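Give me structure tokens for this 71-residue protein.
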Amino acid sequence: MKTSRLLLFMAIAILALALAACGGGKATPEPAQPEPAQPTQAPAEQKPAEQKPAEQPAEKVTLTIESWRND
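Here you go.
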């Protein structure tokens, strides 16, 4: 008698999990797109002396990726 109850419980649990996995959830709404800001004044032109100096290039790095795949 106990084994039949256990089997019934397991069958119901498996069925509930299968239905939950296949069930369609609500789609999340996309956030509203903000309107682009309108410039109030024309951008001031920068003089060559006021421009930011160029940044030095980053140091080169070797990246090694290991995988079990044989592609």
